[in-house]
Structures are given as structure tokens and as C-alpha cells.
Amino acid sequence: MKNIKLVLMYEGTGYFGFASQRDVPTVEGCLKRSLKNLYSGDVPVVGASRTDRGVHALGQVVSFKVGPKIETGDFPGALNFLLPADIRILSSEEVTCDFHARFSARGKEYCYSVFVGREIPFNLRNYAHHVRRELDVPAVNCAASHLIGEHDFTSFAQEIIGCPTRRIESIKVSEKVETMGCLLEFHFRGNGFLYKMVRTIMGTLIEVGHGKKKPDEVYEILKARDRKRAGVTAPPHGLCLIGVNYGK
User: Where in the chain are the domains?
Assistant: First the structure.
């Protein structure tokens, strides 16, 4: 048996998240069906992140153990032939037997996109959250600075299983002027994220950007450990898993 690591990207619009569910399309379900076609049997798959319905990925990682029937380098071509066009395998490699796509991960990077303008371009409507009112970016950056470091993120999680402490290494905002408005991209890097944590943070930062909350309130919300204190959960289609870090 060999342990295979795949890096894949997908558009999450048409899927009920990554993890397999009965009677609805999921990314993992499509991948497992394609592997079953190749191996004539079920192949258990482990994903690094259980992205939600509508969330996208450019660097999702999965691992699985199979026999030597298919050469490691042939997985992208073989699977992409069987998978729908909105799921693409980018690379494959054989890894050590103890590698686990989820538990071996040391960190993740997500990007949340917000388009600010009267109307959103068609090419962005499935990939960016549309807000019509201008955001106070300096205030948003000030608010985000309170979240850097290791904290209990209970206030920003929809559901908590296990320890709520995570470390956010950076939150960086980039601005790109478009014909119809401005695209803001919020890049989050950390050792891990709780369920809907990034989207809840984004909902809160947008409220800061609109003047509904002051930047320093984010620190108070963080310390309160109360989900009711934070903002609304931003919609899923603005979120994309950029990559998973397996380094030290």
C-alpha cells in the first residue's frame, strides 16, 4: 500500500461542502466515486479542511492509501478525466505512511473576498461577497490587529468541538480597483480555524468598516467568549481555502 497526497482546487458553488453527505453532491463524494471507478472498490479519503457549502478551494489537500495499480504521477490525469470540470487535481505525490491530510497540517491560509460597489461584475458574483457601502479599511485593519496571536476564539465560532484556542499569524487586506468598484481580499493565516470562524470574523469586520462597531470593540468581543457579541456570519461564497501548510 502507498499513501497518496493530492492537492486539488474546486468551485464550491454547486456542492454541499467538501465532506460526503447522503443524497447531495459534495466534493469528497465526487472524488470517492472517481477513485472507486479506478480501483473497483471504496477508497477512504481524508481531507485537510471540511469546507462548507459554497466555499471554494485553490489548495485543498487529501490523502488516501491504495495499492500500486496506478502510478503516483498518473493520478491527476486519471482523476481529472472522471471528475466534473469544477473539481481539478493539481498534483499528486507519495508520502510517508504516517502522513494524514488533516492531522499532519500545521497551518492553513484562507482568503475572503468582498466586492464594494453598486453592482457586482458577473465574473465575481459567485466568488465575492457584495456590499454596496464603502468600507473604512483603516478601521478594519485596526480591528483585525486585535485578533492576531493565540486566543480563545469562542466569540467567533458557530460550533466548538474541543479546544477553542487558535493562533492567527496574520490578517492582510489587499485592495484592487475594478471598473465597477473595488475588490478587497482578506488573507488569513493561522494554525487552524474553528467552524465558521473566518466568516464570523469577516461579518464583524464589515460591521466595523460600516461604522456599526468601533475597532476596539473587537478586542472586547474576543475576550467576552460569547458568540452573540460578534457580527453576523458572512456568506460562504466569498471564502476560499488557499492552501495548507505541512511545514514546521
Answer: 2-95, 107-245
